[in-house]
Design brief:
Elements: H1 17-24, H2 29-38, H3 41-45, H4 49-70, H5 73-78, H6 86-93
Helix pairs in contact: 2-4
C-alpha cells in the first residue's frame, strides 16, 4: 500500500501556541495529543492521530531545545540556531 506524504522544509521555527501552553502546563506528549484531539483539531486539520502525535512530539522536542534560552530572554533574542520571528519570541518569553 502506497502512502502519500507531503514534506515541508524551511528554516523558520513554527510554534503552535496551544501546544506551547500544554508543554508549559506540564502535560506529557500523550496527554497533550488527547487534549488536542478533544479540541477538535483532527476535524479542523484533516490530520490523522499519528500525524498529530508526530507534530506534538516535534513541538515538544523544539521546546526542550529552546528551554535553556527561555531562562535567559536576551540569549533567545540573539541566538541564530532557531529562526523565530520577533512576535513569536515575545510570546515565548511572556
Amino acid at each position: 500500500m502506497a502512502v502519500e506524504l507531503d514534506v515541508f522544509v524551511g528554516n523558520t521555527t513554527l510554534i503552535d501556541k496551544d501546544v506551547y501552553q500544554l508543554w508549559l502546563d506540564g502535560y506529557s506528549v500523550s496527554d497533550a495529543v488527547s487534549i488536542r484531539i478533544q479540541s477538535g483539531i483532527l476535524e479542523q486539520s484533516g490530520a490523522t492521530p499519528d500525524v498529530l502525535e508526530s507534530d506534538t512530539m516535534d513541538h515538544y522536542r523544539a521546546f526542550q531545545m529552546l528551554e535553556r534560552l527561555l531562562h535567559s530572554p536576551p540569549k533567545l533574542i540573539n541566538q541564530l540556531l532557531f529562526q523565530i520571528p520577533p512576535p513569536m519570541q515575545s510570546m515565548l518569553i511572556e
